[in-house]
Specification:
The complex is a heterodimer of chains A (113) and B (113). By secondary structure, chain A is mainly beta. Chain A is 0% helix and 58% strand. The chains are: A mainly beta (113), B mainly beta (113).
């Protein structure tokens, strides 16, 4: 199983809503990542978890709150988002270490209205 | 900032080899070169990676120059399904054991019939 599963695939939310994006992998990977991708732009790294601990936060606004409940799951909690936060949110995982490839999910297409 | 430079776009005839160049003149001795691609509206897909030797797998070949300042990804027989944005990434180490993937702008490869 080399899949990273993200749910939901599409999400429309209002600026006052609270929602969560979910990511799951069963490859035994110990590093998990959140990326944000705007249209026609490359993915931008947001957060990195290593062994279930947050190791990198790329100065992401606090309205995005990551959580890693266990080694297979990664959540991204959303609250009070702005329309400019509309984007494709990608989750990835890897074994960790320099010489390992990352596997990406298909993303959640988020629209903030 | 990304540490690689790639052409913005390239065309390739179906059935011919696609050669995608990448410059990474500031690469450090322990940094790997990774290639990913992203087909429209999907998550990035790992292709291949290498340190200093040439590498080949079922998808592609990676040729790294002896000084490691540039590399070329070769798709030996391009098909229409290879149309995608191709990202060349030098794996950045933030000081932890894992290296994070920082995407540059990539090369949009269009395979034409």
């Amino acid at each position: 199983d080399t899949e990273v599963t993200q749910t939901p695939k599409h999400l429309v939310m209002g600026m006052t809503n609270k929602k969560s994006l979910k990511c799951e992998q069963h490859m035994g990977h110990r590093a998990m990542y959140w990326y944000k991708q705007k249209a026609k732009k490359p993915p931008e790294l947001m957060f990195v978890y290593s062994y279930e601990k947050l190791s990198i936060n790329e100065s992401v606004p606090s309205r995005f709150s990551p959580e890693c409940p266990n080694s297979s799951l990664l959540n991204l909690h959303l609250h009070a988002l702005q329309p400019e936060d509309s984007a494709l949110y990608l989750c990835a995982s890897s074994r960790g270490g320099m010489n390992t490839e990352a596997f990406f999910g298909q993303g959640t297409r988020l629209t903030v209205v | 900032d990304a540490k690689t430079t790639q052409p913005t776009s390239m065309d390739c005839a179906e059935g011919r080899a696609a050669n995608l160049p990448c410059n990474h003149s500031t690469i450090s001795g322990n940094e790997y070169v990774y290639w990913y691609r992203q087909i429209h509206s999907q998550g990035p897909q790992y292709i291949i990676h290498g340190l200093k030797n040439n590498e080949t797998n079922e998808m592609a070949s990676l040729i790294i120059t002896e000084d490691r300042k540039s590399s070329t990804l070769i798709l030996p027989h391009a098909t229409l399904r290879d149309t995608a944005v191709y990202y060349c990434i030098v794996r950045v180490n933030y000081g932890g054991s894992q290296g994070n993937l920082i995407f540059g702008k990539g090369t949009k490869l269009s395979v034409k019939p």
